[in-house]
Design a protein that fits this description.
It contains ten helices and ten strands. It has 267 residues and is α/β, with parallel strands linked by helices. It is elongated, with a radius of gyration of 19 Å. The chain binds ligand BV8 and zinc ion.
Length: 267
């Protein structure tokens, strides 16, 4: 396992060995968590002053029990997050991940995030293991609910907002997977197939603590894929990686793309 601390001053040459190691890869999975959206100004779950979980104990809020106990509080929290995401822009990490398909046409993005920044950066067929905030459905009859068009107002902070009601009388809930809920079966099956058959998996911006999603890098490793982690901090994944790139996704992914381009022109 190689650990390399990357800062933009070093330039992308330091990543040339990694670009060479990836040279023959065909099937590549990019597995992302909240850290890939951090440089877009979207709070991560666990770390940093404005971490979602430090303010609201997201692990308790992101549950069916919390929603049924206080629909307005939970709906208000998600509407606030949806407003923040709507005002955010994809960052250089999202853009570089989308551009990696130039080198790996079979590349697939599997994300734990509920924002649409990968799509807005140009990535297609993104697998959202934990759903999407721009989708909503009736909690009772599961009928899809289309959010009112336009960007929701951004309250100063999360304030309770009564969720809309479906014609059946049920409350509308966010289209995300809460703790204790199963992942969408087709998405989970597709993600495990991709991780189990890839040549390389790049894990970007995740603390790798939420299951079953956190199994994916381990699954790739058990199938002899090259596993690369991009994270400024150590995680549970460190021992399961071939390359540990310590740094920010917005610096490292563009540098990796440049190293791949350099490697390609040299060959
Ligand atoms: C299920 C949607 C089963 C909602 C989310 C005990 C052991 C093992 C498992 C469990 C257990 N107890 C309970 C469970 C199961 C539970 C779980 O895993 N709990 C954890 C807390 C232990 N899992 C579930 O409940 C799942 N379902 O198991 O169902 C089942 C089976 C049958 C029948 C019924 C049920 C469902 C889990 C999905 C929960 N929903 N999101 C919402 O968004 O509100 S999870 C949510 O949290 C995210 O989606 C994500 O998955 C997770 C947060 O993790 P990260 O993305 O990694 O974010 P985090 O802040 O932690 O880390 C950010 C990282 O980025 C950091 O490492 C940081 O250093 C780095 N970073 C920061 N800046 C940058 C950066 N990196 C790069 N560049 C930067 N600039
Ligand atoms: Zn309904």
């Amino acid at each position: 396992m190689h650990t390399l601390t990357y800062t933009p001053e070093q330039g992308h040459d330091v990543l040339l060995p990694l670009a060479q190691a990836l040279g023959s890869a065909q099937k590549v999975v990019v597995f992302t968590g909240a850290g890939v959206s951090a440089e877009s100004g979207i709070a991560t779950f666990r770390n940093g002053a404005n971490a979602l979980w430090s303010r609201n104990d997201a692990q308790r809020m992101a549950t069916p029990e919390a929603f049924h106990a206080n629909p307005a509080r939970v709906w208000g929290w998600y509407e606030y997050r949806r407003a923040v995401i709507a005002r955010a822009q994809p960052n250089p990490a999202h853009l570089a991940i989308a551009a990696l398909t130039r080198h790996f046409p079979e590349l697939r993005v599997v994300t734990q995030n509920v924002d649409d920044l990968h799509e807005r950066a140009g990535s297609n067929d993104v697998i959202h293991l934990h759903g999407r905030l721009d989708q909503a459905r009736c909690d009772k009859c599961a009928r899809a609910f289309t959010h009112l068009s336009g960007i929701p107002a951004l309250p100063e902070e999360e304030v309770p907002i009564q969720p809309p009601q479906c014609a059946c009388g049920g409350y509308v809930r966010p289209g995300v997977v809460w703790f204790g809920e199963s992942l969408p079966e087709d998405d989970w099956d597709a993600a495990t197939h991709l991780a189990g058959h890839c040549d390389a998996l790049i894990s970007v911006g995740t603390s790798a603590m939420v299951f079953p999603a956190a199994q994916l890098p381990r699954l790739a490793k058990s199938n002899n894929a090259t596993v690369i982690q991009v994270n400024p901090a150590p995680t549970e994944m460190d021992l399961h990686c071939d390359f540990n790139l310590r740094g920010h996704a917005g610096d490292i992914l563009p540098a990796l793309l440049a190293a791949l381009e350099r490697n390609q022109s040299a060959s």
